[in-house]
Amino acid sequence: MPVTVRIPTPLRKLTQEQDIVSASGDTLAAIVSNLETTYPGLEARLLDEGGEIRRFVNVFVNGEDVRFLDGLSTAVAEGDEVSIVPAVAGGAARPPSE
Fold first, then answer.
1. What are the tens digits of pLDDT across the range 64-76?
2. What is the pLDDT of the chain when averaged over all its residues?
3. CATH of 2-86 given 3.10.20.30, 1.10.260.40, 3.30.360.10, 3.40.47.40
4. Are 21 and 83 in contact (CB under 8 A)?
5. What strand order describes the sheet that includes 57-61?
6. CA 8, CA 27: separation in Å to the nearest integer?
């Protein structure tokens, strides 16, 4: 069952510069495994040594953060959209000095 996966700019060198790819699987874990088969190296960028989603990577299924669903066990179905979004770090914004 094909699922649409949105790839962020920093990972597109692994997908031949494609920003949207298709993957198959019935869970997010299966999608990641399928992506690794097609685009070697992607799994290592998404998962840590313990096999969990890296701390600074956010993954959404149909706009829902998988950390608040079932993580890698989150179910996906044909036509769903998975978005990979690198976390943005930064300090607090300060107003301009007067």
1. 999 999 999 999 9
2. 90
3. 3.10.20.30
4. no
5. 20-24, 2-6, 81-86, 57-61, 64-65
6. 20
Question: What's CA 8's distance to the chain center, in Å?
Answer: 8
Reading phi first (left if > 0) and then psi (alpha if -120 to 50, else beta), residue 41 is in left
pLDDT band at 98 (very low <50, low <70, confident <90, very high): very low
Angstrom distances, CA of residue 31 to CA of 1, 92, 95: 10, 35, 43
Tokens of 83: 């978005």
